[in-house]
What does this fold into?
Amino acid sequence: MRNDEQRTGGIRPVHDWLQDLDVSFVRGAGSRLADEVGGDLLAAFQQMGHRVRDVPQEDTEVILTTARFGEPLDWREALLFTARRQFALEDSPSIYTLVHATPSELERALAHLRSVLTTSPPIPADYDFPGLAEDAYQVLFEQGRRGGPLLALERVIQSQAKCIDVLLIVGDESPEEAYLFNLVGAHPRICAADPEAFHRDVVTRIATAESTEEVTDHTFAGEPISQAVWTALDTPQAMCRAGEELGLRGFFTQMVRIADLVNVPAVAGAVSSQYSEGCFSTWDPKLSGLIATVTGSARPVYKGAVTDADLAVITGLKPDGSGALVQPIAGHVNAPPSSEAVEMLELDKPLPSIRLPAAWGHPAEVPVVRSKLHGHRGCVRYDPQRVEYVPMAPAYQHYPVTCATSAQARGIAEAFSQAEALQDPDDSRPVVFTVLPGHGIIIVEKWVAGAAPFQTIWEAMDTGSLEIEKLVPQGPVEYVPEGNGMNVRRVRS
It folds into this structure.
């Protein structure tokens, strides 16, 4: 494997765990410019030490292809669904589709969405894009309200291209900029003023995504928790109340179901048919484990209205780190916990424990972090007297990873390990957060006497100590003093 400077040109800090990939380019129904960029990216992959194949082979991990802007591709022709059969592959490689739009085409599409998103409730005819499902307007409206017209357009392009990972290339005769889309809705802008730097940056972003592994192989273990024990706990109802309180403050949005966007019979075998918009967990001293929301991939779950049937008990990590150990609950369907279960557990590892006094009703040794909240939101400003911000490492800021991966779990644990308010249990600040560019925010709270789980978080929102916004920053962030005692966010390039 080549060193960081060879792989990236030394432009930005990168992760030290990047792997060399096996890559192919299979031209599709794209434009001349998309074909040219595909060839240039393939050359950049090779120059940066990756293996390039003329035709996908058994060890091919990434296939680049192309599709047309604004034109739906039949799923029977989409490599996301056909690559294994077409090239006789045992495993499905990751597909990245290059879509080219001229600046005027992009602006027309964004202007249209910008206009129709102001109308509530949405008018179905306003979202009548070719190739999308009848109910797609609901998802596009929700996504547009969450992340603006570009996020709504991202879902349109992904649906039409029948691909989740899309590089939208913007330019007339040559690229001017590009946006890299993924499942959770990231859309970082990549400047193409310097062609070599542009190609290296795209390659590094793809290598970052493909060098991670999911940690969602959760396993049920241990004797089931009896209904008598479960119903006697205070925490499950506190979790339900927390979901309601956070939902009232607009922290969660409706989960995205692929079937609501596009009719593709084969989708279940190629990509998760749905994913949730956030998760949360809190420590239960009596169970000595985390009570967390279940995964949205198991069934539709709106995190702003959970019931105790939408909760799981996490007791530890599997020895190989591939997932969490989950204790079943008697009488429950027992869906697995949210895909972020491992990151919730890893977060505690570098942090101290505290001893709860008898006033809590159950003296016990517990993690210094009581509750954890993960959502696709941003933070505009915060009060440093009440809240602490800890940044992700520079490589995670420039080259983000996505949820449910071991890399993100490590990065989050590293960030929170720097928190003075957590390393010192006597620090008066009860809330700490970090921001994952392109993804969202993670907020944690300490144990505060007299407060319910998550209460210090929602009260921080109410008082303005933590100002949450719907838009997720797509690049590196920092917070600087505003002059009124608050720290305000500044997005860096």
Notes: The radius of gyration is 23 Å. The chain has two domains: 4-210, 219-491. DSSP finds 16 helices and 24 strands in the chain. Confidence is low (pLDDT under 50) at residues 1-9.
